[in-house]
Amino acid sequence: MAKHLRTSGDYTIKTGTGASGSNSVTLDSKTTRVKGDLIVEGSNTSLDTTTLTIEDPIIRLAKNNTNTADTDSGILVERGVDNNAAFYWNEGESSFKAVLTTSDGTGTSITDTALTSIKVATTPTDSNHAASKSYVDSELLSAAGFDLKIAGDDSTAITVASGQILQFVGGANISTVGSEPDTITIDLGQNLTNIESISSATSNANLTLASNGTGDVVINDTLTFSAAASTPTASAVTKIYNKTAGGGGTGLFFINSNISSGTEGELISKKKATALAIALG
Predict the structure, then answer these.
(1) Dihedral angle at the C-alpha atoms of 120, 165, 141, 129, nearest 10 degrees?
(2) Distance of CA 109 to the CA centre of its chain
(3) Which end of the chain is more exposed for a tag (fewer CB within 10 A), N or C?
(4) CA-to-CA distance for 10 and 76, rounded, in angstroms?
(5) CB within 8 A of 269, min separation 6: which ones?
(6) What's the rounded mean pLDDT across residues 139-149?
(7) φ, ψ of residue 97 in degrees (nearest 5)
(8) Which residues, in sequence order, are CB contacts of 238 under 8 Å at separation 6+?
């Protein structure tokens, strides 16, 4: 038999000392219907329900957030023995994140343990839609003129196709090392081999060979002097050069502004030196 309770004013059901006490009110029925607004003023609302249906198209979270401190807000999914999953607004980073977390949803922040994946439609239909990896890969491979081409000094072009690796291989005296992030280091070896020619890049510029500290510049094989086009200008260093042989019989001349007032001299050969010694007694 149905019963109705009607009052002309507010009606309160209070057990014990009310909200500050430990007593409860239990409504035990198949359906409990509240026809007016339902306001829950407690600090915890727990729904043990199999199916939750909400008519409201917009769910408002963190209602009383005054933005005086970073407050994360979102949806957290319990996963039993595994870390929970969350999709939430990270206030500190000002971005939405999909993560795994050890947080249980009782605080005001989410502690990320790892980022997790979000699946989207394979082909976006708007320029602002998120694109899947397969879509991006397909677009890049099919884009006209996308092939990456590399050419060496000989102008021969090679194509780096999808899945291939662009490798920098060092030749004689050159070594290459790859390291993260995205760095290739090219080193010139200290001991140069198979070098047939060294020249300066600027016309009439000096080419300097210098040792480190008190070390010497050592030449282990024959040193050849090409014929000098003209006698060089004397300076405070000794310059050695080749010209047509004169009285010294060598054709190897030197000049130094501090020797004989800068007048060039010729190194004398052993044969000439012997003949001179005999002539002078």
Answers:
(1) 30
(2) 30
(3) N
(4) 38
(5) 248, 249, 250
(6) 70
(7) -135, 145
(8) 254, 255, 256, 259
SS3 content of the chain, % helix, strand, coil (to 5): 10, 20, 70
User: 274 pLDDT exceeds 60?
Assistant: yes
> What is 15-84 written as a DSSP string?
-TTGGGSS------SS-----S-----SS------S------SS---STT--SSS---EEEEE--TTSPE
H helix runs in the chain, sequence order: 133-142, 270-279
Residue type for 77, please?
A: V
CB 78 within 8 A of CB 99: no
DSSP state of 231: P
Copy the structure tokens of residue 208.
């300097």
The pTM (predicted TM-score) of the whole model is 0.50
Cα four-point dihedral sign 158, 160, 164, 165: positive
- Looking at residue 146, its pLDDT comes to 63
Helix H or strand E segment including 113? strand 112-115
pLDDT of residue 145: 57
Position 75, amino acid: I
